[in-house]
Each structure stands twice: as C-alpha cells, then as structure tokens.
Amino acid sequence: MQQLVSLASRALAAQGHDDLIWGHASVRDPDGRGVWIKAAEWSLGEVSPDRVHLVDDGGQVLSGTGARHSEYPIHTEIMAARPDVGAVVHTHPRYAVALAATGQPLRPVSHAANMFVPPAVPRFTLTADLITTPELGKHVAAELGERRAMFLVNHGIVTVGPDLRAATVAAIVLERACHQQLLTHSFGGWPTWSDPAESLAKRANIYSERAVNAVWDHLVRQLDNAAG
User: Fold this and answer.
1) DSSP state, 65?
2) In this predicted model, what pLDDT tens digit does every residue of 69-94 receive, in sequence order?
3) How many CB atoms lie within 10 A of CB 75?
4) How far is CA 214 from the centre of its chain?
5) Angle (nearest 5°) at CA 144 between 168 and 4
6) Residue burial 151-181, b: 16+ Cβ < 10 Å; e: rest
C-alpha cells in the first residue's frame, strides 16, 4: 500500500498537481482498518513509502509515522459511502480550480472531458474551507454521489476509482480537460463540444480499464526515466 500511494503521489506531482505540502491520495486498507495516505508536511513529489501511514475512520494513525492530514475525512467518508471506491485523490490543480471558480460546467471540447461528462461534474459549494470533520466529509461524499470526480469550488478536486491507478489517472485527465477548456475559451469565437451521445461513445472507446491501466504504466515509466 505504501509503495502504491508513493507512486501515485509522485505521478500527480509530475503532472502538475503539486501544491507545496498540500494534496493527498489514499487507498482503502484491505483489512478494513481505514486508509493508507501520505503523511502531512511533505509535498506530493516527496512522498516515499515510509511517508505513507494508515489512518482509521476517527483520524488515528495506526501504522507509520508523521503528522496526519487534517482532511482525512474526505477519504474516509467517501469510502464509507461508496463500497465500490478503493481509492481517493484530492489535489489543488490550477486549471481545475480556475475553471470551477468561473462557474462554467466542464464541456467535452477535447477527449479528456469525455471521461467525466455527461452527466455534469458535481460542484461542492457548502464551504471552500478545509474538509476537517466527518460531518463535512459526509457532505462531500453526498455531493459526489456515484460520480468519479467533483469540483470543490475555490478549493480543489476529488477523484475516485476502484483502485488508486484509476483515481490517479482520473485526476490527471480532469486537469487536462479543464486546461483545454480554458485554452479554448481564451481564443474567443463559438466553442464547440461533443453532444452527450458522442461523449458516451468516446468514453467507451478511449477510457477502457485496459487503457487507464496503460496510462498508469506510462506515468510510472516517466517517473523511472526522470530518476535516471
């Protein structure tokens, strides 16, 4: 678990999700004890296996060392509400934060957004502050519903998946989709995008489980290449 969270964290950092010491990815403990998540006070790019610890639903560190992230309820409450979710990513990528703050819905102006829409990506607006209590975590989980991604408006994003590979790829693709939409809008004119039927067809054609796993493998290879 620690190695997986370390890889996901560093892949997110390499793809523009690093935000100083903030942001985190988690995976469900196979024995039901809570979530494996990076320790606080380290950037995503600095996460090694020994900087990942096990946190239970009440916020207690059961295994490993280091300060616990205050936003652990994002992870524990989503997993409590969604038995199908095995992993959660929460980061603050700049283009996703910017697009959500404009109030624009995510549009499938490129391949990337078709992973998520239709239906619309949910927008959590109850607070833009940190999600530090189980009550707020439950609200986040309720707004997310059965979707794979959500905007925490003026804050960041949440993505989920059956495993951490899928949740990590979703976070990276969501940021790319937001970047493309903002870039498209900046050129003016009349932007176009896929209709719902085409979007669903593209989702099936592009984002199969095999393809998502291949993207994950690509991200890991990039880390290996960068390490020399």
Assistant:
1) -
2) 999 999 999 999 999 999 999 999 99
3) 32
4) 18
5) 20
6) bbbebbbbbbbebbbbbbbbbbbbbbbbbbb
| 225 has a pLDDT exceeding 90 | no
Phi, psi of 181 (to 5 degrees): -65, -45
If you average pLDDT over every residue of the chain, what do you get?
Answer: 97
Contact at 8 Å (CB) between 140 and 127?
no
Task: Specify the pTM.
Answer: 0.96
Cβ neighbours of residue 133 closer than 8 Å, sequence gap 6 or more: 73
Sheet of 123-124, strand order: 61-63, 52-55, 35-38, 24-28, 87-91, 156-161, 149-152, 123-124
Burial of 10 from C-beta contacts in 10 A (0-12 / 13-18 / 19+): buried
pLDDT digits (tens, 9 = 90+) for 173-221: 999 999 999 999 999 877 899 999 999 999 999 999 999 999 999 999 9
